[in-house]
Queue: 4 jobs
Job 1
Amino acid sequence: MARVRRRQSDAGIQLTPMIDVMTVLLAVFMVTTPMMTTGIDLELPRAGASAMTGNDHAIQISVDANGRYFLSETQLPREEVVKRAIAMRGENPNLTIMISGDTNADYGAVMAMMGSLKDVGFQKVGLRTQPE
């Protein structure tokens, strides 16, 4: 009777190539993410020696000189901006909102946005400025 020899195959996963690929992807995202931060061209008001710029994880809402509202780069009515902010808060209850108001923007438009956000329960709402 002939003896059947089985060859053992190497069924393990090689982690080294996967770690190399993940490291390269991490480096690419770390370099490109700050470059993706674009927005509406605003002339921010000057206030004090240090600027209030907000953190990278905050929702960026802009009010231009004509009183139009923008969420990131998308122009929306004020009510729609508030609805989308509420939806984003569902994923992150500690969400921060930074409002960028153009120097020539109507004060009422900026404060209306801030008031609307406060009315629906947002506690961390700030105004972006640039240093003098």
Note: The chain has a mean pLDDT of 79.
Job 2
Amino acid sequence: MLLAAIIIAIVISLNTGFLSLSLNDFFSETANHQIAQLRTNRVLAMLLAGLAIPTAGFLLQEYFQNPLADSSVLGVTSVASLCVAFFIFFSQSLVLPEFLQNGFLSISAIAGSTLMLVVLLLFSSRFRDKSYLIIFGFLVSALAGAVVSLLQFYAENQSLKNFILWSFGANNQVTGNQLLILALIVGAGLLLSFKSIKPLIGNALGVSYAQSLGVNLMELKYLIIVATSLLSASVTAFMGPVLFIGIVVPHFSRFMYNPAKLWQQWILNMLMGILIMETFSIISEISQLPLNVITSLFGVPVILMMMVKSRR
């Protein structure tokens, strides 16, 4: 059913826009071929984001055993955004080819998210209650937001415009070269995620039991760091900080199917993530609202309901 819904959402997304396109526009050099290519890039970008963001949220939630753990809540996305802001504001004077510029954009986001995840894992051993990590992530997010605001205050007009467009989550502006880099990084992150699922099953049963099963907890920690950094930072680099999806999708998946079966949960997360991101892309195109506004309007009420339900 999810696969059928995804196909329907992709078809609707390809046919959503100011102009009506025919099938010939997607495969032939017609007058509307460039518009068809832009819509195809938009669909592919949402597909990759739907694979990456829920997987990163799923890995962090299972590792920290906290349903609110996510790259955006823990401050990973904010620090990645800060590094992207530094790159955008201070690279305007550099003349770089598009491919190199996209590469440095992704490298800066990955460096920021990796740095934040390493700091989180270092502090996790000091906090008895892992919920303190949420508070720590919130404080780091606030600090990163303050620095970004300071950079915006002193930025030139063109740099400021580029950063604002990036922060809106403009999924319709992802180029073919950016898609290639995004696909390579997401593919690497998914491969590392695949290797971390089996150790996570043992980790969920407790440290002592995991060690008795031969789970290398240090290796698992590094797998989680690298995988979530690649997945969240790659999407953040090219599509802006897509918020709350990494929390909401794993929650829906656990509600729909047995949460103890992590392999099935991972697959369900990716399918639901693709469907939700393609749907939000359609809504964004119709309403002309930025993608991040839509994800926030959807995610905040759902997280509040999760907290109320958990308290009850």
Note: Residues 68 and 247 are 6 Å apart (CA to CA).
Job 3
Amino acid sequence: MQLFQSFFRISALFLALMGAVLAANMPNAENGKQYAETTQGNNSLMINPMNPKLYGGPEVEAVKSWGIGSPDSVGWGEIFTLLQGHYFSTIFALVILFTILAFLGHYMVIGQRKFNHGKKIRVFSSYNIVVHWCAAIPFVLIALSGLIMVFGDKLGGGGFVRLARDIHAIATPVFVVFGILMFAMWVKDALPKLYDIEWFMIMGGYLSKQNRPIPAGKFNAGQKMWFWVCTIGGFVMAISGAYMYFQFADIETLRVMALVHNVLGFLVIALLITHIYMAVFAIEGALGAILDGKMGEEEIAILHSYYYKEINA
């Protein structure tokens, strides 16, 4: 109970901090006017000869009168400018900070789960291992290069950020190819089951130091959630990213794609940090399962009790 109270206190503090930061960054019409006057002289640089619908004088001129609830805003322009210019980078920073602090607290309070790894059972084939890493490596590169672009102005911009953009563009099609193979490979094991609800109710047993059987199949409910966000969410981000990179749509469509891309990015970054923490720190030897394909029998029996019954049936 004390652990839950501490968790809720930290969550409340985080929400209060986020609210204060967002309120401090709230723009008004005067901010929009100053921004527009700064960029208006660069109209010629904003025109894409491949798609003349995207940018130009009227778009920049319209920003002058934008503020919260401005009657002069058109379509998604105001909300996009508001979020992209003031909120997205702050939210990404808070998501990273809060997720890392939450798991640091978990490691200090609960600690690493340890199991007897004397007897091991092969869970993943060589094909599983190769496909997983061929999807995981470009995925991590995409996430890191994306964050560099998000915080590009804080990092000085220039060649470093352009290199990150190029890595982002190259790694994406590689992930898509192996992501499709990974989806086909594990979609059956990742389908939701009724016992997944119980797993979420007890948070997979990770808030307790006791090793007692947890309701989970080959993948637990948390791993399943990450699978669907990584594959389906990743494909949606690849599509929205392609729209933005090649700019083959009108400005309204690109704004929507950017909003979707960033909102999914919050979830992806939080769950990617979670996935890495669980594999490297939360469970002793867990990373070895996706390196050699084997898991300790005790670990399977405790953390994947339904799967353990299946392989022993």
Note: The mean pLDDT is 82.
Job 4
Amino acid sequence: MAVQAELVAPKIDPRSEFAGILKEHTAFGNPEGSGGGDRLNSWFDRLLIQSGTEMDGTVLMLLSVMGSIFLGGLAFVIQENLLTTAMGGMVGFVVPIAVLMFLKQRRQSMMLKQTPDMVDELARAARTGRSLHDCFRIVAEETPEPLGSELRTCSRRLRFGLGFEDALSSLPERTGLVALSVFSTALIIHEQIGGDLVEVLERLARTIRDRLTFLGRLKTMTTAGRATAILMLALPPAIFAFFVIRDPAYLNNLMAAEWGRRVTILAVVLDVVGSLWIVRVLKTSQRV
């Protein structure tokens, strides 16, 4: 009778030297750069990460270019007008980026709703007397998507021997949530100076829930204002596109008159300034 020996994989002690094999995200922008190009590329990098897609930035740019060629070519075939062709190309280029922005917003909303329960679960695990590393690993495995994938990424970094400061350093940037930035800071401070972790986590969970309640009320009270702001952003370009598509010579006739040129330039400047201001207000009011 043959006896089969059970092979048990040896346990490897975590060492910080192993962290060098971790794959880092390829970034297009320099976060420390002060130029407009670096800020734009950094925003693009954050959009790719926070949307939760595994898509490479090069692939997204190719999709944008293909969308631009498709819609621009379709507009040219229908009307044979360079202005409508350019408008179609711009819309086609922006569509993939707009989809990513929608995915990012939805993912952040889901993770924010998961955060209080995750913090409570970590507090309950800490009451059992386990180490903070073990508690974090257990909670990361039990937390569902999309927050669970980000926690498991940090857990893998911990298993490679990194401390909480290094393992959780990318969590706020990868999620874009203020609540998870506070959560990471609390764990890092506890690892460095100690303290009553359970009480800190319970207070943090209550604070996040109160913040969610406040944001929900704020969103309800400002629904009409946000809808008006979005309408103000979308209506002028939509009206302009309607007239240009309806009559390709509309813009040429408008710019032929002196008053037409002045009014058009003034309208474009005011619309751009107003759009930038509205976007800034909306962005400030939606910080999570």
Note: The CA atoms of residues 229 and 278 lie 6 Å apart.
